[in-house]
# Entry
Amino acid sequence: MKRYIAAMDIGTSGCKSILIDESGKVVSSAMEEYPLYSPRPGWNEQDPEDWWRGAHNSLRKAISKSGVSAGEIAAVSLSGQMHGLVAMDANREVIRRAFLWNDQRCAKQCADVLETLDGVDGILRYTNNNLLTGYQGGKILWLREEEPSNYEKMAVALLPKDYIRFKLTGDYVTEVSDASGTGFFDVKNREWSYSLLDKLNIPRSLFPRCVESDVITGEVGAEAAELCGLKKGAPVVGGGGDSVIQTTGMGLIKEGVLGLTIGTAGIVAMGFSQYMDNIGGSLQFFCNNSRELYHVMGVMLAGGGSYQWYRNNLCRPEMDEARAGGLDPYVVMEREAAVSPPGAKRLIYLPYLSGERSPYSDPNLRACFIGLTQTHVKGDMTRAIMESVTYGMRQIARKIQDLKPFEMSRVIVSGGGSNSPLWRQIISDVFQLPVVTVSGAREGGAYGACLVGGVGVGIWKDIHEACGVFLEETRDEPNAANKGVYEETFGIYNDTVPALKPIFDRLANS
# Structure
């Protein structure tokens, strides 16, 4: 009997469920959206029950579309937005709406922890990661200070995808890649940092059992099976946090192959075969989805988000033209950008619409165009955004190379930006490396979760064999003639933040 793997990916806008077969082919997919709540600026919440409805509805639809029977599904795996907090009480009920990865309310609590531990170097000794405001750890501390009655009720702190696991199996379990992004996890030893929890007077009992990503964590219960269209008793595999497992779904499991994901954020990532100290804490160094492997990444908060903002606010004529012609607005925009020469006539854009996380961890940074003259036209601005987001990604790639020197052989791109032939060629020219897209990567974290799920039930012996299913879909080779102009403009880009930092601070504090 042919076997299939199912995965559910709990995103911020909705849940995507997919099925793949033993060859790695995506058989079907379905998406269910759900609401986002922002009660105050910088506060972002969702109702975990909305996630569950989105998860079981989308998986049932995907299975129905595929024609696959429930008995043919060998495993269910999970991916999901990282860092969130689902607070559960002793009666196994959700206490309040969940805090999301982009909720910024806990800046004070994170700063207090760093002060207690004598700065970033102090927290790195426990976790190998800075305590970012997006992480779950700061949210737990905020709850303790600002909603003490809810904190007292909390018996377990779950991550978003692990709430879906709980609904599937009735068990509280997480896995190492998602746990790495809580701020309270010892990445080197692949376990909770109990010494840090004790120092901060946080009960160890709040944190679920943590396993490797390919471990079977439980079985689908009768009620969940009925809702999802699954067979009761189907194994549920650990899976992974989306920022990590989507790179597994791109084949990023060892040094030398760089991954760029251009979605709302811009993620620059690489697999590492050994643990490395995250000196300075400007990167995120997590456990990968296979034993002994690690994952390093830097995140630009507004990578593709800068391009989307530009489209929505400054490209209404292009959007109208696209609508009239039945085209994607980006296709119309990029016709103009393609006419602009490499370097966009020395026009630079700083992509700091939301401050920045990497390569600079600084909420005060601001977005702007630098170098505008009367010679520039709109296509130059469009191209400058694409080029400058790529420069920011190259900065992060250099920081990754600082951890461990190595030669990069190619770049794998995914996310919405990878659909642009022009942007792929810009990336190839800026990095002077081949740029490829691979099968499955467009499915995001769900595809990586399927691969990990297949390893968990023995369809593939390990993640290396699982990643052998990838097929190269596009390849762009670097144009050596453009190397000089991009080196020069990249050098100018590198100097902008040091030069403008005092001005950005004055703007942010005025």
User: Anything to note?
Assistant: Residues 116 and 199 are 9 Å apart (CA to CA). The mean pLDDT is 95. The radius of gyration is 22 Å. The chain is about 40% helix and 20% strand.
